[in-house]
Write a structure and sequence with these properties.
It holds the Pfam family SRP54. With about 300 residues, the protein is of the alpha/beta class. The protein is built from 12 helices and 8 strands. Helix 2 packs across helix 5.
Length: about 300
C-alpha cells in the first residue's frame, strides 16, 4: 500500500500528539525515578511498574528493566539515556511485526476479511483501504456482511460510492455468510482484484455471533480453499488491556493474520500494541489517527517506539 511523502510527517506528528499522555506519564515517572539517584534493584522494580502501567506488558517491562540495569548498578544514569534505551527495546519488539498489508495478485480476487468489535473503526478502515486500492487502479468489491447493524451497511455503501468500488449488500438481518458467498461470486465473475468482507462487530463473548463469523470463513473456503487470504483484526487503541483478549478470541475463531490499530490520536493506551507484539507476534499493517483517508498509514516501528517515550 502506497503512502504520500507529504502525508507522512504530519501523520506521525499527530501520532506523537496522540501518544502525549503515554509519553508524559513515562517521562515524568522516569525523571522522578532516575534524577540524582544511583541505580539499584528497587529502582529497576519501580521502572518495571511504570512500564506495566503504560500497558507495555509484563514481559516487555522485565526485558527493558534488565537492559537498563546491565552494567549500570550503583551508577548514576541520566533519565534521557533511560528513555533512549526504552525506545530502542520497544523498537526491537515492534520491528519484526511492522509488515505492510500486501495484496498478492496471484489470488484473484484476493479476499480480505475484516473483523473486530463494534466501535473499533472497522468499516471506516475498510473504506480507507478500498480508497487506496482504487487509487492504485485496483478493481475492488466490498461485501456488507455486517448484517447485524443497518448503519454498517449504509456506511459501507457510502464508502463504495465515494471510492467507486462495487458492493454486495442485503437488508439488515440477512445471512452474513450468504452475503459473503454472493460477493465472492461477483468478484470472481467480474475479475476483481480484491474482495473486502466486512463482518459484524462481535464482542468476543457473544458466542452466536462468533459462530456466524466461523460460518463466513467456511463459506469462503468452499469457494476458494485458500480464502480468506488475509484476516485483519481492527483494534481500538483506547481499550487498553482488553485488546489482548480480543486478539486471542479472534485468532481462535477466524485465524487472524494481521492487525490494524485505530484511534491512536486520542489515547493514553498506545503501549498495548507493544504488549500484543511481544505476546502474539502478529503483523501490524496499519495504524490510524483520525477519520481522513491519509489518517491511516503503514506502521513504522521506530517512529512509534520514539513517540511512546516522547522522543522526536
Amino acid at each position: 500500500m502506497s503512502e504520500t511523502d507529504n502525508a507522512r510527517p504530519g501523520f506521525w506528528k499527530r501520532l506523537s500528539q496522540g501518544l502525549t499522555r503515554t509519553a508524559s506519564n513515562l517521562t515524568t515517572g522516569i525523571t522522578d525515578l532516575f534524577t540524582k539517584k544511583k541505580l539499584d534493584a528497587a529502582t529497576l522494580e519501580d521502572l518495571e511498574d511504570i512500564l506495566i502501567r503504560a500497558d507495555l506488558g509484563v514481559q516487555t517491562a522485565e526485558n527493558i528493566s534488565a537492559v537498563v540495569g546491565k552494567g549500570r548498578y550503583e551508577k548514576d544514569i541520566d533519565p534521557e539515556e533511560v528513555r533512549a534505551l526504552i525506545a530502542g527495546e520497544i523498537e526491537k519488539t515492534l520491528a519484526p511485526v511492522a509488515v505492510p498489508l500486501v495484496f498478492d495478485s496471484a489470488h484473484k480476487p484476493f479476499v480480505l476479511l475484516m473483523v473486530g468489535v463494534n466501535g473499533s473503526g472497522k468499516t471506516t478502515t475498510i473504506g480507507k483501504v478500498a480508497s487506496k486500492l482504487r487509487a492504485e487502479g485496483k478493481k475492488v468489491v466490498l461485501a456488507a456482511a455486517d448484517t447485524f447493524r443497518a448503519a454498517a451497511i449504509e456506511q459501507l455503501k457510502v464508502w463504495a460510492d465515494r471510492t467507486g468500488a462495487a458492493i454486495v449488500a442485503r437488508e439488515q438481518g440477512s445471512d452474513a455468510a450468504g452475503v459473503a458467498f454472493d460477493a465472492y461470486a461477483k468478484a470472481k465473475a467480474e475479475g476483481a482484484d480484491v474482495l473486502i468482507v466486512d463482518t459484524a462487530g462481535r464482542l468476543q463473548n457473544r458466542t452466536e455471533l462468533m459462530a456466524e463469523l466461523e460460518k463466513v470463513v467456511r463459506v469462503l473456503k468452499k469457494q476458494e480453499p485458500a480464502a480468506p487470504h488475509a484476516v485483519v483484526l481492527v483494534l481500538d487503541a483506547t481499550v487498553g488491556q482488553n485488546a489482548l483478549v480480543q486478539v486471542e478470541a479472534f485468532k481462535r475463531v477466524a485465524g487472524v493474520t494481521g492487525l490494524v490499530m485505530t484511534k491512536l490520536d486520542g489515547t493514553a493506551r498506545g503501549g498495548i500494541l507493544v504488549a500484543i507484539a511481544a505476546k502474539h507476534g502478529l503483523p501490524v499493517h496499519l495504524v490510524g489517527v483520525g477519520e481522513g483517508i491519509d489518517d491511516l498509514q503503514p506502521f513504522a516501528a521506530r517512529d512509534f517506539a520514539r513517540a511512546i517515550v516522547g522522543l522526536e
